[in-house]
Amino acid sequence: MAAVCNAAPRRGPADAEVTVTVFGDYLCPFTARLAPELAKLRDVAVEWRHRPLAMHPGAARLAEAAAEAHAQGRFWAMHAALLAGLDVEAAARKAGLNRKKLRAALADGRHRPALEADRALATRLRVGASPAVFVNGRPVAGDLSAAIAEARAHPNAKTGTPWRPPILAPRRYDLPVTADSPARGPASAPVTVVEFADFQCAPCARVAPSLAKLVREHGVRHVYRVYTSPRHRQASLAARAAFAAQAQGRFWPMHDRLYARGGLDRASLVAHARALGLDLARFERDLDAPATQRRLETDVAAAQSLDVWGTPTFFVGGRKIAGALPYAELVRLVTSAPPASTSDSGTAPAGAPPRPPRLPAAADPG
Question: What is the largest CA-CA distance in the chain?
Answer without folding.
Answer: 76
